[in-house]
Design a protein that fits this description.
By secondary structure, this protein is mainly alpha-helical. Helix content is about 85%, strand content about 0%.
């Protein structure tokens, strides 16, 4: 007569036993697992939303700072180009007009 150990040597029998066990236990296990995983999933989603919003805020601040730096650099370039002579003739004229 075949023993209990011989029953599990056959893959079909093992699959059948596992399938029946899952079918019997799933109405009990699924609600318990869902009640644990649902708050975890919701918490992970909330964290993701907060991180995304913080990233947008940080990106906006960086862009604003970069725009400010660009505006300052342009203003300095305009100030130096308007103050300094732009051609050799203007430079020569400015040098000859300088007091000796």
């Amino acid at each position: 007569m075949a023993g209990f150990d011989d029953l599990f040597k056959n893959n079909v029998a093992t699959g059948l036993v596992v399938g029946i066990g899952v079918a019997v236990l799933s109405p009990v296990i699924v609600p318990v697992v869902a009640s644990v995983l649902r708050p975890l999933a919701k918490s992970a989603i909330k964290s993701g939303i907060l991180l995304f919003e913080k990233g947008l805020e940080t990106g906006s601040e960086l862009a604003e700072g970069l725009e400010d730096l660009i505006a300052e650099a342009k203003a300095e370039l305009e100030a130096t180009t308007h103050a300094a002579p732009t051609t050799v003739a203007q430079a020569t004229e400015a040098a000859s007009d300088a007091p000796k």
